[in-house]
Design a protein that fits this description.
Rossmann fold; 9 strands; 4-stranded parallel β-sheet; Asp/Orn_carbamoylTrfase_sf; pyrimidine biosynthesis; Asp/Orn_carbamoyltranf_P-bd; alpha/beta; 5-stranded parallel β-sheet; Aspartate carbamoyltransferase
Length: about 300
C-alpha cells in the first residue's frame, strides 16, 4: 500500500482487498469484551477537521484508540486557523509534534494532497470539498461484501446529489476496481460535468434501474452546498428520485439499501425503508470504525509490525 490514502483511485484491487480482509480480521476484535489491541502503541494520530463532522471524526478517534494510538483532536474552530493560520503552518506545527498520521477533512478539494507534501507522516483523506472520501467508500464496500459476498459483477445504483458528493466519486472508483457495475441516477443538474469520464453508467430514470440493482445507495441532498435552484422543489425531487415504499418493492428481494448519512428522512429515503431489515445504514456506522482501524493499521504498523 501507499504511504497515504488520499483517493480511492490510488488503490489497486490487491490494496482494496487487503484493507477489506484486514477489516474482517479486526471485526472479530470488536466482538470481544476488551476491544483494544497494542498494535499502534506509541504512535500519534491527529484528527485535523476543518469542517464539521460527527460520525467520521468519532469513528477515526475510536479506530485509533482501539489500536492503542495516542489521539489529538484538532478542530479549526477556536484554533489558530480561525485567526488566519495557513494549512502549511498548521502542517508544520503537527510535524513538530511528531504526528505519525494526520486524518484531514477540509472544505477545499485537494487539501489532503497538499498536506502530504508537507508532513513526513501518513495522510488520510477524511473528505475534501466535493472531491473524495475514500474511507467511506471502503466501509460501504465492506458492508456490501458482508451482506452479498463478492462484489464482482454486482450492480450498484447510486442515487441523488452526485454533484456535491465526495462519497459518490470515491464509491464509483473503488467499486469499479473491485469489479462491480455502477449506475448513477440523478437529475441532470446534480451530475458533475466530468461524469462522462467516470467508470460508470448514467441514468435519469430511477424506476427503470431499480429492478436490476443488487445495491441501492441513496445520497443526501446537500442543501448547504447549494447556492442555486438545482430542482423545482423538495417534493418534486422526492417524487422522482426518492426511495419510498413503492420503489422499494420494485427492488429484487435480496437487494440492500445504503445511505452514507446523515439522512433527510422523507426526502431522499422514506423512514420505513431506512429502518427495514434490508437497510445497512446502522451497520455502515459500525463498519466505519473497523475499516478505519484497518487503514491506520496498514499505514502505520501493519505489515512491518
Amino acid at each position: 500500500m501507499n504511504r497515504h490514502l488520499i483517493s480511492a483511485g490510488d488503490l489497486t484491487k490487491d490494496d482494496a482487498l487487503l484493507i477489506l480482509d484486514t477489516a474482517e480480521e479486526l471485526a472479530r476484535v470488536s466482538e470481544r469484551s476488551i476491544k483494544k489491541l497494542p498494535t499502534l502503541r506509541g504512535r500519534t494520530v491527529v484528527n485535523l477537521f476543518f469542517e464539521d463532522s460527527t460520525r467520521t471524526r468519532i469513528s477515526f478517534e475510536a479506530a485509533a484508540k482501539r489500536l492503542s494510538a495516542d489521539v489529538i483532536n484538532f478542530s479549526a474552530k477556536g484554533s489558530s486557523v480561525s485567526k488566519g493560520e495557513s494549512l502549511k503552518d498548521t502542517a508544520l506545527t503537527l510535524e513538530a509534534m511528531g504526528a505519525d498520521a494526520v486524518v484531514i477533512r477540509h472544505g477545499a478539494s485537494g487539501a489532503p494532497h497538499r498536506l502530504a507534501n508537507w508532513v513526513h507522516g501518513s495522510v488520510v483523506n477524511a473528505g475534501d470539498g466535493t472531491h473524495e472520501h475514500p474511507t467511506q467508500a471502503l466501509l460501504d464496500a465492506f458492508s456490501m461484501r458482508r451482506r452479498l459476498g463478492s462484489l464482482e459483477g454486482r450492480k450498484v445504483t447510486i442515487v441523488g446529489d452526485v454533484l456535491h458528493s465526495r462519497v459518490a466519486r470515491s464509491n464509483v472508483l473503488l467499486l469499479d476496481t473491485l469489479g462491480a457495475d455502477v449506475t448513477l441516477v440523478a437529475p441532470p443538474t446534480l451530475l458533475p460535468v466530468s461524469v462522462g469520464s467516470w467508470p460508470c453508467e448514467v441514468s435519469y430514470d430511477l424506476d427503470a434501474v431499480l429492478p436490476k440493482s443488487d445495491v441501492v445507495m441513496m445520497l443526501r441532498v446537500q442543501k448547504e452546498r447549494m447556492n442555486a435552484a438545482y430542482f423545482p422543489s423538495e417534493r418534486e425531487y422526492s417524487r422522482r428520485y426518492g426511495l419510498d415504499r413503492d420503489r422499494f418493492a420494485k427492488m429484487p428481494e435480496d437487494a440492500i439499501v445504503m445511505h452514507p448519512g446523515p439522512m433527510n428522512r422523507g426526502m431522499e429515503i422514506a423512514a420505513e425503508v431506512a429502518d427495514s431489515a434490508r437497510s445497512t445504514i446502522v451497520e455502515q456506522v459500525a463498519n466505519g470504525v473497523t475499516i478505519r482501524m484497518a487503514v491506520l493499521y496498514l499505514l502505520l504498523g501493519g505489515e512491518s509490525a
